[in-house]
Structures are given as C-alpha cells and as structure tokens.
Amino acid sequence: xxxxxxxxxxxxxxxxxxxxxxxxxxxxxxxxxxxxxxxxxxxxxxxxxxxxxxxxxxxxxxxxxxxxxxxxxxxxxxxxxxxxxxxxxxxxxxxxxxxxxxxxxxxxxxxxxxxxxxxxxxxxxxxxxxxxxxxxxxxxxxxxxxxxxxxxxxxxxxxxxxxxxxxxxxxxxxxxxxxxxxxxxxxxxxxxxxxxxxxxxxxxxxxxxxxxxxxxxxxxxxxxxxxxxxxxxxxxxxxxxxxxxxxxxxxxxxxxxxxxxxxxxxxxxxxxxxxxxxxxxxxxxxxxxxxxxxxxxxxxxxxxxxxxxxxxxxxxxxxxxxxxxxxxxxxxxxxxxxxxxxxxxxxxxxxxxxxxxxxxxxxxxxxxxxxxxxxxxxxxxxxxxxxxxxxxxxxxxxxxxxxxxxxxxxxxxxxxxxxxxxxxxxxxxxxxxxxxxxxxxxxxxxxxxxxxxxxxxxxxxxxxxxxxxxxxxxx
Length: 475
Ligand SMILES: [Zn+2]
What we know:
The protein is built from 18 helices and 9 strands. By secondary structure, the protein is α+β, with helices and mostly antiparallel strands. Strands 4, 5, 6, 7, 8 and 9 form a 6-stranded mixed β-sheet that branches. A 3-stranded antiparallel β-sheet has the order 1-2-3. α8 links the parallel β8 and β9. α4 packs across α5, α4 crosses α6 and α9 packs antiparallel against α10. The longest helix has 30 residues. The two termini are 25 Å apart. The structure holds zinc ion.
C-alpha cells in the first residue's frame, strides 16, 4: 500500500481554488459591513474546504490497497464494482462529494466502502463532525431551534427532521452501550470498578414525569458523586457539609427493577466495589421503589452503607398533614410546621411522631393524612436520623438529584407541549447523560455514528414507483 499524499499539483490546485474564491468575493467584501463579510467568508470557506476534504479523501482512496476486502457477511473476498463510487455528505466545513472504491458480495447482497470505516463515516448524509455538532445542539434544544442555531452559527442548512434523526440515532447507540453494560452486570461479567475510586460515594435517585407514547411516564434519574473530604458551610442553615465532587448521571424510562442495574453500572464506573470506597451514602425521597432495592444493589463490598431520606421531602410531608388538618395555606398550618421542621433536623422523627399523635383532625380526609404521615415517619425513622447525619457532615438534601432531574430531563424533555416517543426520550436522555457525565469526547472517539441504525423518517413510505435513492445505495 502506498502511503497517501497530496501531490504538489493538488496543493497548488487547491491554492488556486482559494485565490479564485477570494478574487470573486472581493467586490462583495469591499462594500459589505463586517457581519456580511463574515457570513460571506463562511460560505466561501465552505466551498474551499470542501475541495480540500475531497482531494484528501481522493488521495487516500488512490493509495488504498487493491486487494479485495473480506465480506462482513460470509468472509469471502468481495468484488470491486466501482473504483470511484460517489458519496455526498453534508459536512462541518462544506458539502463533500467523496469518491472511493466500492466492493460488493453478490450472495450476501452486501456492499462495502472500506474507506468509509477508516474515515468514520456512518449511514446518512451528515459527516461525523457535523453529526457531533447536530447532536450537541439536539440534546440541548428542541430540534427546530437546534436546526436554527446550526444555521446561525455555521451557515449549514440541516432540516429539523435530520437533527432529530441524528440525535435520536446516536442517542440510541449510547443507550445500546448502556444496555450492554447492564446485561454484563446481570450476568456478573461487569468490568472491575474504576481505578482511583474515592473514599466515599453518594448515590441519589429520583423520578420525573415525561410525556411519552401518549401518556405520562416516569423517567428515573440517578446521580453518583464522590463525597468529601473537603467541606463547605451552607449559608442558609450554617451547617458544615462535605463537598460533592463532579457528578455523573443516568436516566431510564423503565421499571425500578431495570433502573437499579443502570444505577449500579454508573456507581461501578465511579468505583463502587473498589477497595478505597469505605462509605456509600444513598439519598432519595420516600418512594417505595427506592428503599425496596437500594441496599441490594449498592451495599456491596466492605463499604459502610447509609440510607438518607431527603430532608425537603420529609418537610413536604409535614406540610401535607398541616394543610389537611388546619386548612391549606393557613397561619395555623404554618405555625404547626415551622418548629417541627427545625426539630426534625435537630432531633430526628421522635418529636414529629409525638406532634402527629396530638393532632385532632377535623375530617376523615385529614385523619387519613395523619395516619399516612405516621406510617411514613415511622417507616423512615432510621433514614431520618438527621442529627447523626449532620454530625458526620453528610448531605441530607437530595438537591443534587433534583438539580439533575431539572438539568438532565426537565430542561430538554418537558418543554411546553412536548410529546415524545419513548425510544426518542430515552435516546436523548442517554446522550445527555453521556455529556453531563463528562464522557462526551471519549464517546465520540469511538465513532458512534458508524454503529447507528438509520432512524426511520417521519413520513409515509414511498410508493413502489419512486426512483431508487442512489445515496442509500452508496451507504
Ligand atoms: Zn458475502
């Protein structure tokens, strides 16, 4: 195999393309304001850089080895059907017409352009770089404004539907990786826990409702972060707390039994089960699904294990009772809750249970609320031992997971009138989780666009009389 190179002739030709483009642009540039100059040069640049990309790919195609690749289906040598098959891509720096050798295996009906693999080109019409930018926007914004921002910044016109397809398609790759990790963990074949694990881990879980497939469904969210040893002083309460390190997150539109495997995998990535981890603190609200299984998944290895009910959820329960007994928003309700909030923090559930026992509910509904609260505070008593937790400087509010709910899910998936297919909501959540967990760059180095399955367009199927799409063939 020759090593590919750009000949002197090609470099000079590219230089001439540049010179001609600037000459042609000259009259426009000389009369425009700077905004127009910049926009014009973006367009000029796309034409020039596209030629450089094309010539670079052509040089690599020319140097590619002439022997046939093995068919991915049957392993037999493939047949060269085109020495220079065209492929059109919309890219980050221009529109490219790439030509490269194309091979075929008749028995398997499989085509292959080996150079696509080397270049990291996947199915669809977007280059890897443009795919990555479109996904980055697609996980932050609704697909229509994402397409607008893409045009505003890069002057690349990618339709909203294409932004959706690439974001959900790449998100599906991220989710498939997650599912593979969960399957490996279930088969007890997970990789060893991460090295450099911290001494203490906090795991917090919660749920947020998302509208998918015609109804509201719970997207469960998990956050894992190292805890301490540094401390900070909460300005509101004056309490000294150990600092949380950079969190990583996961989210699943799934039953608790499945979601716990997802949380377990995330915790393993942060060191759960490794020798240095001496303490695992689990934070959640009172939801049954959390405390039903948390210990089974997170109380592993020799680490100490503590479960803590989020203080703010506990306070909400006080308010529910007070509103039912004294009237919603009444001064009497506030007068009952105020001191109890403080005593719950300073003394645990004992004074709360005593206060509940002394209430005289005015109605059957109020009686019911009091009874429910007594059950809740009794059942969760050990998880509300706030005086002990505070003395240890552990977190007692799941602010970390609630902010993850907001930044991971609510901000992107609960916009006004947003309706999702379940697979789309999960794909976007998984891709956002990759980004928010600091794994975005590493994920893209694995060329996820090569592994993605084409996402079906949202339009009726073409009639049989429709002409074949040459682009689909080349892909
Ligand atoms: Zn074959």
